[in-house]
Amino acid sequence: MGTEDDFGLWERELEGGARDSGGSGRALVLVAALTAAGCTALITMGQVPLGAAGLVLSSVILLLWRAGL
Q: Could you give the C-alpha distances from 21 to 3, 14, 26, 49, in angstroms and in order?
């Protein structure tokens, strides 16, 4: 990457409104809802440790995804 590439990245970062991935965040909400429903079903079926671990892990993943990492 040269300085021109770096400058282009900085410009896109500062623009704010446009994201590389596009979309309105509906996929993020859908994934979060499906994951929460699946983990809740696991907890209801008696698999409390597995359901709780799934909720914690999915929360961390969704947080990192939202942060753009």
A: 23, 16, 12, 34
